[in-house]
Design brief:
Number of helices: 3
Helix content: 25-40%
Structural class: alpha+beta
Order of helices and strands: EHEEHH
Distance between the termini: 30 Å
Strand content: 15-25%
Shape: globular
């Protein structure tokens, strides 16, 4: 059994390349977390649908440990500009 977290990210199309680049060049803190299995970044098929980020964990507690960690704070310390996101996304 595993625990999968799905995040939906609604972006303005002009920011898609930057968003994908950030994931390719990410710091990698998540990769070292106990219980982390994998991550997938699913590209939208149209401009009005979101990216879907799937993270797979051995269990829910492993995910909760990640969210509460210093590594999580480091991984999220430089967010994209708010102008990149679609309203309501």
């Amino acid at each position: 059994m595993s625990f999968i977290v799905a995040n939906r990210v609604f972006l303005k199309p002009a920011f898609n390349d930057e968003f994908e680049k950030r994931f390719k060049e990410r710091a990698g803190q998540i990769d070292t977390q106990i219980g982390f299995v994998s991550m997938q970044v699913l590209r939208p098929k149209s401009d009005d649908t979101p990216y879907v980020i799937l993270t797979n964990w051995v269990d829910e507690q492993a995910f909760k440990n990640w969210v509460g960690s210093e590594d999580f704070k480091i991984a999220h310390q430089n967010p994209m500009n708010k102008d990149a996101f679609l309203d309501g996304g």
